[in-house]
Amino acid sequence: MRNLVNILDFSVSEIDGLISVASDIMDNPEKYADKCRGKIMGALFFEPSTRTRLSFTSAMMSLGGQVLGFDQAASSSVSKGETVSDTIRMVSAYSDIIVMRHPKEGAPIVASRVASVPVINAGDGGHYHPTQTLTDLLTIHKKKGRFDNLTIGICGDLKYGRTVHSLISAMSRYENVKFVLISPDELRIPDYVKEDYLKEGNYVEMTNLEKAIPELDVLYMTRVQAERFESAEEYERLKDSYILNHAKLDFAKSDLSIMHPLPRVNEIDVDVDEDTRAHYFDQAMYGRYIRMALILMLLNTYEIDDKRGMGIEIEGKCCSNPHCISNSERGIKKLFSEGAKCIYCDQ
Ligand code: CP
User: Fold this and answer.
1) What distance in Å separates the CA atoms of residue 30 and residue 246, rounded to the nearest whole number?
2) pLDDT tens, 191-211?
3) Alpha-carbon distance 54 to 292, whole Å?
4) What is the distance of C-alpha 316 from the center of its chain?
5) Distance in angstroms (rounded) separating the CA atoms of residues 156 and 257
6) Nearest CA, atom 6, ligand 1
């Protein structure tokens, strides 16, 4: 059984396959209208969502399937103290595939280890968001026609931005991709992303968006993630660090692709929406089709492919990340890779 917890759970050729199926679905939706007839998707959103939850729902319905679930933890028995593991065991019995979003980093790994159906990570805290990355990759494919030889600017909250971490890990597998990482010092990319996916020469860190813009092929703007901050004052100080507007685009390439996983707050002025280089609403639209392709793939695939390894316990050692699921979920082992990284949150 396959899961999608981290975008690297899929090979480059599997991602090519998903993009190809998504493109075919867009051209020939009627061919796919009954592919999931009789199947049920469990959509478990322990955190708010518009695009991810509704595009997955739309995807399953467009394939002829049905959807059950909840859109906030408060309306599930989690509010009574039920663990992720027990919730997933139950929903495995009621559905054929599970999509989950959870505020704790690594929660989908806990889920995938007890589920009897495929589990899809729809965002785990500030860690990863692999299905957003599939959406981003389909957008880059449609708008740029290639994944190699691109300079990608990623701007905003690189510390807590889970879409950023997944996008970097996915794009780092292609040839001659350069990352320009633009953030305030307080919101720089985490060390585990640098260590695992970036190498000297393929990235630069900057604080000035205007200086970075002229060389970019893709500009991926992100929201400062209010919900991850410990201090409201710190969020208020940093929230408007970058605002992309029409004037800042004067020195950009004519074929720049402006992307944003959305929702936006202030980081892209609405005057940019009419620019032909603004691709973020198309990006959100593509999410429905790539998620249709993903559901089809996981419901038809039965190999075992957990590249993470099972992990080992280290006497006396707990994960130091307070947002890691291993520090809140009752009854799970605290497991580490051979390099002593937490297998749930990578820190
Ligand atoms: N991009 C994204 O994950 O949006 P939602 O939070 O609305 O799902």
Assistant:
1) 40
2) 999 999 999 889 999 999 999
3) 12
4) 32
5) 16
6) 49
Q: Count of H helices and E strands in the chain?
A: 10, 9
| CA–centroid distance, residue 278 to ligand 1 (Å) | 18
> How confident is the model at residue 302, as a pLDDT?
46
Answer with the residue of higher pLDDT: 37 or 300.
37
Percent of the residues in the chain that have a pLDDT greater than 70, as a whole number: 97
Pocket flag, ligand 1, residue 262 (CB < 6 Å): yes
pLDDT tens for 119-172 read 999 999 999 999 999 999 999 999 999 999 999 999 999 999 999 999 999 999
Instruction: Give backbone dihedrals phi and psi of 151, rounded to 5 degrees, phi first.
Output: -105, 115
Buried b (16+ CB within 10 A) or exposed e, 112-135: bbbbebbbbbbbbbbbbbbbbbbb
Q: Is the CB of 95 under 6 A from ligand 1?
A: no
Residue 342 zone, left/alpha/beta (φ > 0; ψ -120 to 50; rest): beta
Determine whether the shortest distance from the Cβ of 322 to ligand 1 is under 6 A.
no
Can you tell me which residue has the tokens 């009854």? 331
pLDDT digits (tens, 9 = 90+) for 98-121: 999 999 999 999 999 999 999 999
| Consecutive H or E run containing 66 | strand 66-70
- Ligand 1: distance of its center to the CA of 132 in Å? 8
CA pair distance 89, 92, nearest whole angstrom = 5
Q: Could you tell me the pLDDT band of residue 303, with boundaries at 50, 70 and 90? A: very low
